[in-house]
Amino acid sequence: MATLEGSPDSNGAIRGGRAGALMRERGDQLLVLVVLIAIWQALSMIYGVYWIGSPWGVLVRFSEGVLKGELLRHTSYTLWEAVAGFIIGAVPAAALPFLLRRRPIITAILDPFMVGGYGAPKLALAPLFVLWFGIGIESKVALVAITVFFIVYFSALAGIRSLDAKLVQMAQVMGANERDVARHIVFPGAVPYIFTGLRIAMPYSIGGAVIAELISANRGLGYLIQLGAMNFDTTGVFVALVAVTCIVIVGNWSVNVVERRLLRWRPPADLKLETGA
Length: 277
Fold this sequence. Notes:
The chain is mainly α. It has helices spanning about 10-45, 55-70, 70-100, 105-120, 120-135, 135-160, 165-175, 180-215, 220-230, 235-260, 270-275.
């Protein structure tokens, strides 16, 4: 007898297939990681640890920094800058396209200025933020916020513009008011685009904080990178870079978890394609 779609047997087979695919994906990722570490070790042996710190030396220094608390202290400082700037930049950036949805003229007026702000090199703004906000955490948060803002804004705007106008008109004909349209059509349709922007902006927030610390700071992972470069300590630089990489991985995982929870109504295959998980 053929197995009916939606039966326990078919559901179990689907779950088993997804689990198997996930295991294969994790295995491939582990293989790539091993290959990268092997290449790193080979380069370290060829050119010497003075120029390229060895993976084992970086691991030992990383463990020592964690056990002593020094690396965690610098990491927490950079993480705080990135999270604060991410929230300050992402929240208004995601909300602004919704506020301008019924005002296309204002959107058209702001568009060239938004494009110009998006294209402006953010690194060039860092010295200005130091001048305006000082060398404390405020200048780092400002640089992260403006970096994140434009990425999330254009992603949210793309979500708003991608909506089917006929679907909105049909809902209005059936008696839906503006609040119903925004809640049941506009917001669900734009959320995947917003999370795409958040996923792209998240590494930029970490990078922006590190770059700001490279310019002026006495703590943070950017400060550790600058200190290692000044002392010709490549192992110390690699330790800070590994810490930055770990933050980015955890941040990307966190965004994906939140997205899965908010998009539970979507088919799993479509959600997988969106998140790239």
